[in-house]
Amino acid sequence: QVQLVESGGGLVQAGGSLRLSCAASGRTLSRIAMGWFRQAPGKEREFVAAITWSGGIPYYTDSVKGRFTISRDNAKNTVYLQMNSLKLEDTALYYCATSGRPWGRATDDYDLWGQGTQVTVSS
């Protein structure tokens, strides 16, 4: 079975940058897309970005377009989320997830999840 491990979270000032990593292990042949979600206390988990595994086609939620970039390294079975121009509202626990179908933006579209990595943006 697939296991996902996130890393790279931390504390940054507004306007700063972080790069999150998600390393996948196990059987990944049936995994079509890898995505990032985030959840702040008291709020629902929301879609951030995803990328198709084979084609490397990214897609994003509107609030992060132009600031975040998702990419993947097939040789390392790793997906990255480069976050620039961070804002206070980006503060959340960020989860990596994988889906057996492409273009998903809902939590139900993803069936395997990592444990999350905390991103905190301060002023």
Low-confidence stretches: none
Main sheet attributes: strand count, strand direction, barrel closure: 7 strands, mixed
Radius of gyration: 13 Å
Structural class designation? mainly beta
The shape, in one word, is globular
Write down the secondary-structure element order: EEEEEEEEEEE
How much of the sequence lies in strands comes to: over 45%
Number of helices: 0
Distance between the termini: 41 Å
User: What fraction, in percent, of the residue positions are helical?
Assistant: under 10%
Overall average residue pLDDT: 95
| Number of extended strands | 11
Protein model, in words:
The chain is mainly beta and 123 residues long. The protein is 0% helix and 50% strand. The chain contains no helices and eleven strands. Strands 2, 4, 5, 6, 9, 10 and 11 form a seven-stranded mixed beta sheet that branches. It has a four-stranded antiparallel beta sheet with strand order 1-3-8-7, with no helix packed on it. It is globular. It starts with a strand and ends with a strand.
Task: List the SSEs and their pairings.
Elements (H helix, E strand, L loop, with lengths): L2 E5 L2 E4 L4 E8 L7 E7 L6 E7 L5 E3 L7 E6 L4 E6 L8 E8 L12 E2 L3 E6 L1
Parallel strand pairs: 2-11
Antiparallel strand pairs: 1-3, 3-8, 4-5, 4-9, 5-6, 7-8, 9-10, 9-11
